[in-house]
Design goal:
3 copies of one chain form a homotrimer. In chain A, strand 22 and strand 23 form a beta hairpin. Chain A has 350 residues and is of the alpha/beta class. Chain A has 2 domains: 95 residues, MurE/MurF, N-terminal domain (Udp-n-acetylmuramoylalanyl-d-glutamate--2,6- Diaminopimelate Ligase, Chain: A, domain 1); 214 residues, Hexapeptide repeat proteins (UDP N-Acetylglucosamine Acyltransferase, domain 1), CATH 2.160.10. The longest helix of chain A has 22 residues. The first copy, chain A, is 18% helix and 28% strand. Chains in contact: A-B, A-C, B-C. Chains A and B meet through strand 23, helix 4 and helix 5 of A and helix 3, helix 4 and helix 5 of B.
Chain lengths: 350, 350, 350
């Protein structure tokens, strides 16, 4: 797949500055560019690399003015970053993801069916009464339990495990080792100190355009459904407990976790290693900083939280700044005490 | 599986208030009840839903007195919550978990055997000299290494990986992606800065009634055994390091971790994302709150710990309450300093 | 495999004190020794067990002088701990790890090849154009994507998933459930609040002697490579994001995570549940204590960090010590305020 700069400029709706017939066949970061590769410049911090890069072509913003001579051909576009992303997508579409057909041995139970253009890898397992849409990729060693429904254009990477009754929309991507629909952690304490399992009879619903990172776990509901709304993106090694609901377009970074029955709003940003206690309500557009622990519901939209237990980011940072000076504060209090003690006699003196 | 209210009341040892012949075939939360479903009311906070629910029947406590008219039939029992749990169990027993037999292809090595009523899913792998009891369910893509012993009535969900020499009791449930018996993290630093692996030759013992959540890992011992005692319940994505021992009926929530050689007592409650350092001793009935980090052994039973490094919950909360006011404290100290400075001259004045 | 004490002493370059013909066939901790087992004493804390152990032989340091009579035969060596580790290795080499050959069904795509002495377990999947070296062990249910390259003497435990284009050196060990090469968490926010996936086109490089614990995830780079340098050891359930680079001989304990594009130096020690933010630079020989959260790059080598956000260990501990006394500090401030208030009148009195 070799392209001329001109062909790429046409794809990106851009204009070429330099030799339109130069050919490129690889994509590279500007600081790692080599002859035959195309790169981009968006963040001004990287501008210096433009003057030294070995890349054959660089995508830049329309209004960009070089301060030194540039060896590479330039493709000028409205927004270099977006254009480059479009290019990456095209590249990926052409260079992979085209696999389809059925590898053997694979297993499909009674009453299951799937649409056209599906890939079913070797050692994949599909239970009974499973419904799978069009152009779904089921990689090797994936498990899909009974009565699961999967929409169109989903990708289940190797080793994904889907428990029975799960409902998955269109355009969902689940990375290797993801578990969806495992039992919620529900046990009733008994008088003798042991625990009795509370049956977990609900399921999980993933709406359209959900992406879930490797080895993340989403438990089924005790009753009803654990729901991950449209456009939610979950990173790796995340824990979503039973009966949780995550609102549209919320994103969560790696190793964060949400306890049972908490409801997270839309367009929230939850950073890495965050913990959210059970039965909380988190409004839309909430941001929770890394390693924070949320223990209370919030009333207001758009807050930024920090700390464990978490409160608002700005006061948290102010408190933490003083925390760093605590030994000094203690000394100042001790000095004050001494001074006040010395003052004391004067009080009764006059 | 359709039942009359009367049949259900008999099962639960309860009495019917309303039409005994009403039929139900589904279970629902009271706020989501629909015709043909049965629900329950235990927590008074949900009482209002009783007067509006579409559920055909609701299980309530014997002594409950409705404040408004109720459309649903009532089943009165001693303890509505426990009765409902019983009902869920019956439902689950009847609606699933009945799978047995051997799907092909599956693999079983020389000298391995299993009892009656076993399910071995497609693509499951059983090594050599493995002993498996009665009514064990081994789902697809499970791996069981050589010399493993598994008791009766265990369930190994898809993709569970059991390393060699592991010993598992009766009635254990391991969810998808669980790893038991992987090498402990033991490396001896060398003079050149590299690390030399310390062979991990021990195993893991899971006693009876242990349940382990999805993608949780239990490492084998360096020598001897990592031991999870009877009735222990581990949530998802937990890390149990080599030579750890967890006492009877202790429960751990998601994403918590225990470092090497620590011994946890019985009936402890360890919340989510807790970390416990290595070589510690935690007495019985200890409670550790979410995201806490335990760095020291405890002497006394029944303590509640919080914070990182953790200390007792009440003083921690008191300290944290003041932490939130630290900027104010700093100001008050500064004011004091100013005042005392202004006072000073008076000291030498009189 | 039964050995005389004399044979073992010769292997370890040691001298026997006691009956050289005593036979042992098992290894045990000194406090759990039994007849027929051999143990070791290195840590003086365990010396008392030497006088009561049932082990037939105990390895001790050359210069060790027993304070009481010892029943076991002694093998004196230069360094008892190192000698014992050598013994464990020999034991492991002889008692396992010798498996080779191809179990069926297993899958290998077109253009893939492997060297001599390889084990390919049942239900393992090797894609197209994969290159695998000599004496590699690929356990059951392992997935290896297209164009992956694996060196000699690697071990991929059951269920390991390697995405396409990954490059793995020699002598690497990946434990069950490890995922290497999954997509980095890269999404560009759109004006309508949704997120658009940024294609992840890079790969992962694991250099020689890398060991990765169970269910740990290493994401591929957006472009270029996520790189784990020679001798790095990662524990279980760790998250390594896209474009991270980890320097030679750095070790990370369980459940820690590194965000995108951060570069970690050589010979660092990162304890459990640590979080490292994105785009940071961590110099060589940095130590980060458990549960800490690093939010800023460091300039200096060899620092010890603690807390979240982390700063240097000693000042952190000093601040935390005062944190524990905060309620008392508040009281002292209140007392001071009262005293100063009472002083005030004296100021204007004289």
């Amino acid at each position: 797949m070799v392209f001329t700069i001109e062909e790429i400029a046409r794809l990106l709706n851009g204009t070429v500055e330099g030799d339109k017939q130069i050919k490129v066949d690889r994509i590279a970061k500007i600081e790692e560019g080599f002859p035959g590769s195309i790169s981009f410049l968006s963040n001004p911090k990287y501008e210096n690399y433009l003057y030294t890069t070995e890349a054959s072509a660089v995508i830049v913003n329309d209004n960009f003015e070089p301060k030194k001579p540039v060896k590479a051909a330039l493709i000028r576009v409205n927004d270099a970053y977006t254009a480059f992303t479009t290019l990456l997508e095209q590249y990926q579409r052409m260079s992979g993801m085209l696999i389809q057909g059925i590898e053997e041995p694979s297993f499909m139970g009674d009453g299951s069916k799937h649409g056209e253009g599906v890939y079913r890898g070797a050692f994949s397992y599909i239970g009974k009464k499973v419904s799978i849409g069009k152009h779904v990729k089921i990689y090797p060693q994936v498990y899909i339990g009974d009565n699961v429904s999967i929409g169109d254009h989903c990708v289940l990477f190797p080793g994904v495990k889907i428990y029975k009754n799960t409902v998955i929309g269109n355009h969902c991507t689940l990375h290797a080792g993801v578990v969806v629909g495992s039992d919620g952690f529900g046990f009733a304490p008994q008088p003798d100190g042991s625990y009795k399992k509370i049956p977990q009879l609900g399921n999980v619903i993933l709406e359209n355009h959900v992406e879930i990172g490797a080895n993340t776990v989403v438990d089924c509901a005790t009753m009803g459904s654990t729901i991950i709304r449209e456009g939610v993106k979950l990173d790796n090694l995340i824990q979503i407990a039973h009966n949780v609901e995550i609102g549209k377009n919320t994103v969560m970074a790696g190793q964060s976790g949400i306890s049972g029955s908490s409801k997270i709003g839309e367009n929230c940003i939850i950073a890495g290693q965050v913990g959210i206690a059970g039965h909380l309500h988190i409004p839309n557009k909430t941001t929770i900083l890394a390693q924070s622990g949320l223990t209370k519901s919030l009333e207001e939209e758009g807050l930024q939280l920090f700390g464990s237990p978490a409160f608002e980011r700005k006061p948290y940072i102010r408190s933490y700044t003083v925390f760093r000076r605590l030994p000094e504060l203690l000394e100042r209090i001790e000095e004050l005490e001494e001074k006040v003690l010395n003052l004391k006699p004067t009080e009764s003196n006059p």
